[in-house]
Amino acid sequence: MLIVIDAEGFAVGVAPEMDIHEYAAKIGGQVIDDAGYVAPPPPPDVWPLIESSWRATELSVIAKQLDALEEAEYGEPPVDLLPGTRPQWLGYRGLIRNWQDGADGYPNADRRPTRPT
User: Fold this and answer.
1) Contact indicator for 36, 30 with CB cutoff of 8 Å
2) Which run of H or E residues covers position 100?
């Protein structure tokens, strides 16, 4: 559960229709949960930059995973081998390559393609 703590350290109620992070910023407070501070989500205008960085990272992970799967075919599987088959990872690579402007759901991080399991 998210809670707003005001500048004086008191918990403050927030109406359900309000953006909790906007309200916290307005009163000089912060949003916390059971683990502590909760950063506000990034503004939509930076989502494409975030997704571009995530996409590049995923393509690197995929390349390493495909190498690891190839190594596993010829001996002991590497310790960093992730779940999924070679065809699943190749399909995921195609989804990641297409995760750019024009893709369904892009640049919403909640709509990203998911790794093989």
Assistant:
1) no
2) none
The predicted model scores a pTM of 0.71
Q: Which residue has the tokens 């930059």?
A: 49
Element holding 17 (H helix, E strand): none
- The three-class DSSP label of residue 32 is strand
4: nearest Cα among 38, 43, 35: 38
The string of pLDDT tens digits covering residues 41-89 is 899 999 999 999 999 999 999 999 999 999 999 988 899 999 999 999 9
Cα separation of 51 and 112, whole Å?
Answer: 9
Q: Residue 108 contacts by C-beta under 8 Å, 6 or more apart in sequence?
A: 47
Instruction: Indicate the average pLDDT of the chain.
Output: 93
Bridge partners of 97, per DSSP, are none
